[in-house]
Amino acid sequence: MRIIPSIRSLVFAVVMLAMSAASFAQIGISINFAPPALPVYEQPPVPAEGYIWTPGYWAYSGDDYYWVPGTWVMAPEVGFLWTPGYWGWGNGGYAFNEGYWGPHVGFYGGINYGYGYGGEGYEGGRWENGRFAYNRSVNNVNVTNIHNTYNTTVINNNTTVNRVSYNGGEGGTSSRPRPQEEAAAHERHIAPVAVQTEHAQAARANPEQRASVNHGKPAIAATPKPGAFSDHAAVPAKEAGAPYKPAVDHAAAQPPAKTEAPRAENNVPRPENNAPRAENNVPRPSNPAHAQDIQPHARLAPPSTGNPKQDQKYQQQQDKLYAQQQQDHQKLQQKQEQDHQRLTQQNANQARTQQIEQKHQQQTQQMEQKHGQQQQKLQARIPQPPPEHRIAEVRH
Fold this sequence. Notes:
6 helices; 396 residues; alpha/beta; 3-stranded mixed sheet; 14 strands
């Protein structure tokens, strides 16, 4: 049986990636206890040219953190690099800032993820004449198969004593975005690609990846490719990054704080990451003021009409609608951010600022209503499965 979402019931996303995660991006949830330290693990070898390392991270679902293994991912475009996501403290909770692809590496909280991600920029490789060259000093590269390499020593690339996994708060990093990272945040970005989303979803579904089970030492810490959890090259963590401390409290489902830990990527798309799909009917703010205050609507439940061809057709329609809504959300968020920048540059008075804020709230609420209605219409077009199919599903 499917849950038909309504405009009022599809409210602010408080479930995870991710993702995107992201989300379903993790940006939409605030947790009142910090993620565990980054575990110690070895990097699997580069599977082929064009793959870029994306470090592992702690995601959140339900009432526990879980480890999303580091993995090699094919760059979505020539010249693009990965900016890892990170947890940051703000307004009484930890919120996740989603990672993204772009021409330059932006701010990722000063977190030392290792293997070229030392807290600032990326020293694991570079693009040269349309080919990605790997720095052998920080990557596990088989030079017999991959010849586009170089060797530049990186100080403290993966040997830091402090394996803290979050920015701000008690014990977190204190890094702030550098000018070049601020600039990178305003470039064109690409959300985590589909294989990254599926990779995070597989991690969420694996109980051994949960911190309460592995105590900060996940059974699968890194994989050679996204989703390759059973591959012979997948590696377990060698040890936890710090003694594991069970959470005393659980998640505080709150909107993300506007004063959260420094985010250079406030105007990047909030892609799906690894949160559950729309059958979870999570709340959204009733009066959102800005596009950045809300998450894109979660995906509808997978069609189950009993006819595989029909299911595929409806799934394609859902994917198309979701992509369009993501684009609408991103465009509005960028436009509103530009308005804020102009207000700052012009030293706008209170009356002008209030006028723009009212305009933003109206734009955001109109988009919310439009997207909710679109999802309702699409869901209404999907027929219920025949009774015998529903009975079979229940028995199964």
